[in-house]
Design a protein that fits this description.
The structure holds 2 protein chains of 2 kinds.
Chain A lengths: L2 E9 L4 E7 L7 H14 L3 E2 L2 E13 L8
Antiparallel strand pairs in A: 1-2, 1-4, 3-4
Chain B lengths: L1 E18 L5 E11 L5 H12 L6 E14 L1
Antiparallel strand pairs in B: 1-2, 1-3
The chains are: A alpha+beta, B alpha+beta.
Chain lengths: 71, 73
């Protein structure tokens, strides 16, 4: 089923900003994810309604399962 | 004279997602909004490379989509 890697950051208002990546490499390489998130913060090319992204909050894999219901 | 003013910017990663029936790569776009209009190509390239390294599909290209408004000065 479709999986996504969600990178969650905190902005200047301490609110969460999510950047999601489709078809993540599994198993997840924590070092690579950390490095990528650090890079996104360092480059500072994204903004949000609450200002710049200033810290990492969490990263997680989200899987969506779809089951058809017979009608 | 009309002038243009950059109002929004978007980072677009183009990934290859297998081949079609005639053997040509199928391209899929992944867009990231909320890019600062003053972001530099270096910054965007670094971020695109970092994001691309976390997923499975081969990166085909990195694009930037800018929108400008035009007005009479």
């Amino acid at each position: 089923m479709a999986k996504k890697l969600e990178l969650k950051f905190l902005n200047e208002e301490n609110r969460t900003v999510t950047i999601s990546v489709d078809q993540p490499i599994e198993p997840v390489d924590a070092v690579a994810v950390n490095a990528a998130m650090d890079e996104i913060i360092t480059q500072g090319c994204f903004f949000s309604s609450g200002g710049n992204l200033i810290s990492k909050k969490e990263a997680r894999i989200v899987e969506r399962n779809v089951f058809d219901v017979q009608l | 004279m009309a002038v243009s003013n950059l109002i929004s910017s978007q980072l677009q990663l183009v990934f290859e997602d297998g081949l079609d029936d005639s053997g040509r790569p199928v391209l899929r776009n992944k867009n990231f909004n909320n890019v600062k209009t003053d972001a530099t190509p270096d910054q965007l390239h670094a971020v695109a490379t970092a994001i691309s390294g976390l997923q499975q599909r081969p990166l085909h290209g990195i694009e930037r989509n800018d929108a400008s408004e035009l007005f009479e000065s």
